[in-house]
Amino acid sequence: RNERCNENYTTDFIYNLYSEEGKGVFDCRKNVLGHMQQGGSPTPFDRNFGTKMGAKAVAWVTGKIKECSRHGRIFANTADSACLLGMRKRSLTFQPISELRQQTDFEHRIPKEQWWLKLRPILKVLAKYNIELDTSETAHLEHLTRKVLVPEATL
C-alpha cells in the first residue's frame, strides 16, 4: 500500500481486515517497506521491477490456491508450496525453499555458485590491481578465504 493512496485504507486497516478474514487459514504481519528500504529513493526501474515481481507473486499464490484447494481446504504439502521468487538468467523464477540448503553458503550468507565470480579476474585487471590472471576455482573465492594487505607504497 502506498502511504498516500487512500486516507481510509491505512496499513492498520488492511492488517486488521486480513487478520480477521484469515482466521484459521493464514496469519498476517504488518511491514512498512519504507522502513526496510536502504539506499535512497527507488528508481523507475526499481518501481517497475517491484511491480512485476509483485504481480508474478500474486499470480503464483492464486494459482497455488486453485491447484491445492479440495473441498474448501488448502493442502500445501508439496516441496513447491513454499517458494522464493528471484531472478535467474534474466527471468523471474520460483525456487522451492527446500532446495536452498544445498545451494547456500550460510557462513558467508551467499550462494555457493555465483555466475559473476568468473568475472573477478577481469574486474581486477580493469581496476589496475597488480595480480596474476588466475582463473582457477580458488581465485574465484579469494575474497572469502583470505585478505591481502596492500602496502601503502603501492597505493
Automatic annotation (TrEMBL):
InterPro entries: Phosphofructokinase_CS, Phosphofructokinase_dom, PKF_sf
Catalytic activities: beta-D-fructose 6-phosphate + ATP = beta-D-fructose 1,6-bisphosphate + ADP + H(+)
Pfam families to which the protein is assigned, alphabetical: PFK
A GO term from the CC aspect: membrane
The keyword Kinase is assigned to this record: yes
Disulfide bond among keywords: no
Keywords recorded for this protein, A-Z: Kinase, Magnesium, Metal-binding, Transferase
Gene Ontology biological process terms, A to Z: canonical glycolysis; fructose 1,6-bisphosphate metabolic process; fructose 6-phosphate metabolic process
Residue ranges of domain Phosphofructokinase in the record: 2-61
Entry-linked PANTHER family: ATP-DEPENDENT 6-PHOSPHOFRUCTOKINASE, MUSCLE TYPE, PHOSPHOFRUCTOKINASE
Protein name: PFKAM protein
